[in-house]
User: Which sequence fits this backbone?
């Protein structure tokens, strides 16, 4: 024992002795590495030179590129996805955007926009997130949004948008006088979400596919260069603190991209960034969430901006509702599916114990789609459980045969990420939807699901279903006041259960930016020559009218592009 | 370690469930390990009841390093419900490597009656008071027992027996083992909402089964009168909408491929609604006074993306 002890003392002394040398070396190393990290070295040779460099070819990137080009700037877009499978959230979306009638009252529109951007804060108090820029944001929105439809139709006169629908929040100030309007994107003059149109000719395209095609036509007409499979990795900052370009990757090769006027970050949210989801999203953990947009939204732009000193705003929010998810994983995270079928006749939503807890139609009745989510994420602190995560949509054979759980035209099913059939049978065969002969047996099956943790009580679920069926007979949901138009019983066997998680299409917020779309540091000062738009710096939180994200892609994408192009170049153009 | 007995640790690799239906097969697998690293290959373990009766014997047939494992094997759960304390035992023995102590691993499980669960469906809505109506009812055993011939009894809201029907011998289509029957019942003479119950008390089955029950509700009305045809269209593309869910009072149903649904109902004012996923809900009061047709248009809703 003595021998052992002395050797340990010796080694400890050695360690201390060694560590003093080591610590010095470490300190030196840390100093040099922090220097290197704070500023990416300015390249001696540039591989690409342009006036405005756009990072991310989604809706906002396209609009920024078009506007910057039209203001006389040379523009290059970097996009990390390959051209053949370039699926952005814009493209995968329903293709809805807002375009208030230009004859509407502009001040009313400012009021309405201010309320939409307020989040949980009180719009009249101008406190909470982004108080300094909220007023200007609303004004900018009110100036540009009424031009949206015209902007799109000018890009491609074949684009046949259908304008209809008013303000989703009729009680907000200015909702009527602003003559708020939503628009559906289509090239056919008609609109259906029955089948995907991504592989069809242009004149048959609908939804987000039509919207993005229109933008792409605008890009192609202007011969704006898009470099696919070229993810940007770092912003380049000069001694004055200006953003003068970015380092991107093409295969194994690093390429230096010079932006003589500005860089615009339009690379989307952080839906598939595990660390950011852990850091930013509230509620039931990383596995308790799912998203149904592109799995390529991995927060790259947010990370680059943080390194360049950018502040964050509205970042802890996602467009939240409850949706199903399947064990198809990207970046380690399961994939969600758009699940507008929640609240359909012949179905209910129950918690892990087998109880209903809200009117299922709250999801579709509430324009923000947010408040069913708020019910679903209630936390039981005594038991340390989320009793409603997952929730379970319980339905019968009538619904199975008459209602497709997800949209086949758009989102992950429409773009081939998740297989789904109109009659939902494929998902049953894969075990994504549980199937049983009776409600009692269905409860037993839910009980064996690893995420239910044996909480389901079969007798309770049987009672819940019988009681719901009674409400259907009476035509009145006496417990939660669900819309009578959806009161059809869970009747015909077999019976099915589908897990539902908090989630949605995308995260909201990220990089802080002002109304000119200049990226702001933590002091609220613009970072020179860095602009942003779209989901990565969304002006919305959850006070969200459907189509809001595409709308801000146009409005703030255009503003970012225009302002980026207006800057005086920091370097002369080299004749190529 | 000479003179000391080697200890062997045994336990389940694939354990029995804590609760199992009586008479049901349980798939098990056992592992063991000698603390001194001796090979247990070929050694036989025994599963013993609490009265010492031998239930099963299995041999360590392969190993993962020093852990020896049996093949998977199946034993049948006891036929009577109750709590069971059983034992895995490996007898002690002397060998060239030394002496092994006897090893024991007690385990407990519950044998429970098979659970019967019921379903009632195809309940007409509404039902004309005092008239006969047909419903379907079925029963399922948690261990998929053959339930043909079992009798389901139907009780009214006051607990009175209204009739019974025996389950047929072919399971309901697309079900695993839902045995079912059709039942003719007579509606009460008054116009009201009723909750009745279907019950199955199992008889002459090989294993113990719990009772099954399921309550169902229906609405009675006076005899039908006026014929109403409703046709539902998409307000944007003017095409008919199939599978739209239409309610008029307690009458309801889905539209066909032409967007049409027919009702026959007494004349009065009704709450009328139409629902189809992807469209705005339509709700209004309508007055039915004579045979008529009604055309309605649904406005497409905005998808949540």
Assistant:
């Amino acid at each position: 024992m003595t021998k052992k002890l002395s050797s340990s003392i010796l080694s400890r002394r050695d360690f201390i002795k060694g560590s003093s040398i080591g610590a010095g070396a470490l300190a030196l190393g840390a100093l040099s590495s922090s220097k290197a990290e704070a500023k990416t070295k300015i390249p001696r040779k540039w591989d690409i030179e342009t006036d405005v460099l756009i990072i991310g070819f989604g809706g906002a990137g396209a609009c920024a590129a078009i506007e910057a080009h039209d203001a006389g700037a040379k523009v290059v877009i970097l996009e990390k996805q390959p051209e053949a499978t370039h699926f952005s959230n814009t493209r995968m979306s329903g293709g809805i955007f807002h375009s208030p009638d230009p004859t509407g009252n502009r001040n009313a529109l400012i009021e309405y926009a201010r309320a939409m951007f307020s989040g949980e804060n009180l719009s009249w108090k101008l406190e909470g997130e982004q108080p300094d820029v909220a007023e200007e944001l609303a004004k900018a929105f009110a100036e540009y949004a009424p031009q949206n439809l015209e902007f799109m139709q000018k890009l491609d006169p074949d684009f046949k948008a259908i304008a209809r629908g008013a303000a989703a929040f009729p009680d907000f100030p200015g909702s009527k006088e602003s003559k708020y309007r939503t628009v559906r994107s289509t090239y056919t003059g008609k609109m259906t979400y029955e089948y995907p149109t991504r592989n069809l000719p242009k004149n048959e395209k609908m939804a987000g596919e039509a919207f993005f095609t229109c933008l792409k036509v605008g890009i192609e007409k202007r011969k704006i260069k898009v470099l696919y499979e070229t993810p940007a990795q770092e912003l380049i900052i000069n001694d004055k603190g200006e953003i003068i370009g970015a380092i991107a990757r093409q295969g194994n090769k690093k390429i230096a991209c010079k932006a003589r006027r500005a860089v615009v970050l339009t690379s989307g949210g952080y839906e598939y960034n595990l660390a950011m989801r852990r850091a930013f999203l509230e509620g039931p953990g990383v596995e308790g969430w799912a998203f149904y947009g592109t799995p390529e939204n991995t927060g790259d732009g947010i990370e680059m901006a943080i390194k360049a000193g950018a502040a964050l705003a509205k970042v802890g929010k996602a467009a939240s509702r409850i949706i199903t998810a399947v064990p198809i994983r990207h970046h380690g995270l399961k994939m969600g599916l758009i699940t507008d079928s929640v609240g359909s006749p012949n179905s209910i939503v129950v918690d892990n114990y087998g109880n209903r807890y809200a009117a299922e139609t709250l999801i579709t009745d509430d324009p923000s789609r947010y408040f069913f989510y708020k019910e679903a994420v209630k936390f039981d602190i005594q038991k340390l459980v989320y009793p409603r995560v997952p929730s379970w949509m319980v339905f019968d054979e009538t619904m199975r045969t008459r209602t497709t759980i997800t949209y086949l035209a758009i989102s992950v099913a429409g773009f081939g990420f998740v297989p789904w059939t109109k009659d939902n049978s494929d998902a049953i065969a894969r075990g994504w939807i549980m199937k049983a002969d009776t409600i009692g047996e269905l409860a037993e099956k839910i009980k064996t699901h690893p995420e239910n943790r044996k909480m389901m009580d079969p007798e309770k679920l049987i009672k819940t279903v019988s009681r719901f069926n009674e409400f259907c007979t009476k035509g009145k949901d006496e417990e939660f006041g669900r819309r009578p138009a959806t009161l059809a019983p869970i009747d015909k066997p077999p019976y099915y259960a589908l897990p539902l998680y908090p989630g949605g299409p995308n995260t909201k917020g990220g990089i802080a930016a002002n109304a000119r779309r200049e990226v702001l540091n933590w002091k609220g000062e613009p970072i020179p020559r860095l602009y942003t738009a779209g989901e990565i710096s969304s002006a919305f939180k959850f006070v969200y009218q459907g189509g809001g994200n595409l709308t801000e892609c146009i409005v703030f994408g255009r503003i970012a592009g225009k302002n980026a192009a207006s800057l005086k170049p920091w370097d002369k153009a080299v004749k190529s | 370690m000479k003179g000391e007995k080697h200890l062997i640790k045994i336990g389940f690799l694939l354990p029995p469930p804590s609760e199992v239906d009586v008479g049901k097969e349980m798939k098990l697998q056992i592992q063991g390990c000698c603390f001194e690293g001796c090979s247990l290959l070929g050694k036989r373990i025994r599963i013993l009841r609490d009265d010492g009766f031998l239930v099963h014997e299995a041999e360590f047939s392969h190993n993962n390093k020093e852990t020896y494992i049996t093949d998977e094997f199946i034993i049948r759960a006891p036929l009577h419900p109750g709590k069971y304390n059983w034992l895995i035992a490996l007898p002690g023995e002397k060998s060239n490597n030394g002496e092994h102590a006897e090893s024991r691993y007690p385990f407990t499980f519950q044998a429970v009656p098979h659970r019967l669960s019921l379903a009632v469906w195809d309940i007409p809505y509404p039902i004309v008071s005092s008239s006969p109506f047909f419903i379907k009812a079925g029963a399922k055993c948690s261990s998929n027992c053959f339930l043909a011939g079992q009798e389901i009894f139907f009780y009214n809201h006051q607990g009175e027996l209204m009739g019974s029907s025996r389950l047929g011998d072919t399971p309901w289509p697309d079900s695993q083992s839902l045995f079912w029957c059709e039942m003719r019942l007579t509606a009460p003479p008054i116009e009201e909402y009723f909750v009745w119950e279907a019950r199955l008390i199992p008889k002459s089955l090989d294993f113990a089964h719990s009772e099954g029950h399921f309550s169902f509700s229906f609405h009675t009305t006076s005899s039908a009168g006026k014929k109403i045809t409703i046709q539902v269209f998409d307000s944007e593309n003017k095409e008919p909408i199939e599978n739209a869910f239409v309610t008029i009072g307690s009458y309801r149903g889905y539209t066909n491929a032409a967007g049409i649904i027919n009702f026959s109902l007494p004349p009065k004012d009704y709450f009328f609604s139409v629902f189809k996923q992807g469209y705005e809900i339509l709700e209004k009061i309508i007055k039915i006074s004579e045979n008529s047709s009604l055309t309605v248009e649904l406005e497409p809703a905005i998808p949540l993306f």
User: Anything to note?
Assistant: Chain B touches chain A through 53 residues (CB under 8 Å). The longest strand of chain B covers residues 54-64. The CA atoms of residues 60 and 70 of chain B lie 4 Å apart. DSSP finds no helices and 26 strands in chain B.
